[in-house]
Amino acid sequence: MANTALASASGAAALGVVSTPSRRLISLDLLRGLTIAFMIMVNNNGGSHAWAQMHHAAWNGFTATDLVFPTFLFVVGVSIVFATEARFARGETRAQLAAHTVRRAVILFAFGIIVNGFPYFHLDHLRFYGVLQRIAICYLLVELFYLWDRRVSTKTATLVIALLGYWILVRWVPVPGAGMPGRDVAFLDRDQNIVAWLDRQLMPGHLYEDSPAHDTRDPEGLLSDIPALGTTLIGLLAGLWLRGAKTVRAKAAGLAGGAVACLALGYIWSIWFPLNKKMWTSSYVLVAAGWSLLLFAFLYWVVEVRAGAKQGLGKRAAWPWLVFGSNAIAAYMVSELLPGALDFIKFHSHGRPSNPLWYLHEQLAALIPDPGWAAFAYSVSFTAICFVPVWFLYRKKIFLKV
To answer: Global pTM?
Structure first.
């Protein structure tokens, strides 16, 4: 089912299957590959025994897992610059690129619905928000914005407006039925906040954290798309910086300087507007972007600066991440659809119902006494399984581009 969804003729055409790879920024592919591999790992972390850094923060706070999704949106922003400029160089018009962008976003959003519903597609509680849906929305709006206006100043102003505007919205707009945040109800209360309230009005019974008796919130809800656009815009600004007429050393230093600035501003702002991935707070945008920029600066320095002096990453060390990075959406789709597909394979193990993934989990737990390491081994094993079909696409030089 996963391969069918990914290889359908219409989807392949819209996502731009190509027979040969185009010239790419290798450090960006590495960042994308590391991000998608870690995303697969934390989404399949082995359960409650996994280490704390392999789980999202319960509410306010920040873990390594909370860096994954914003880094992918950051990568989307950087990629927009390079992909768009390459298409302009090939003679494509703004109208052609806009139509292409809309088509990609619609198909990506549809893939998100497939991921949420597979394999049973219970329409009564089908979730319409989601990871791929947020990527589709941010990609669509930021790409169209870039096609309309390519100035740095307008992107910076929009970023500031998005982050400050979201803070004002969450902090100073009364929550219907609850009152003013910080006075009548706790600021960033889990349920009584304007973001969760609006999602309950728009999508009752279709939220991520819901049940028939407890329909509460969604981490990819509508209003939190506003600061998520800010995350993508920071990536776009980084891409514009890298496209500038500067030396590679100056570009690497600029990425590192941007990282320090974002981290400092984000952690200071978190004193008043706490870091919170599930609400995608503005301070979280800056802190996550800071760490993303820092990792990107390191990879850019290693690949673009040191590789130029014949001292870069070895091909063997970089190869798995380049494979993942070249087909990131395909890898994500496989990782999300595979558990549902394998759940149809039923058998008994030690007198209990099981399936291939549960069996793998049981065997690793039996071999590795420490629960944390056993969970980590399962996470790595599952990611390695997902690597196989992506490696097949890579060998065939098929790249599904979003």
So the answer is: 0.89
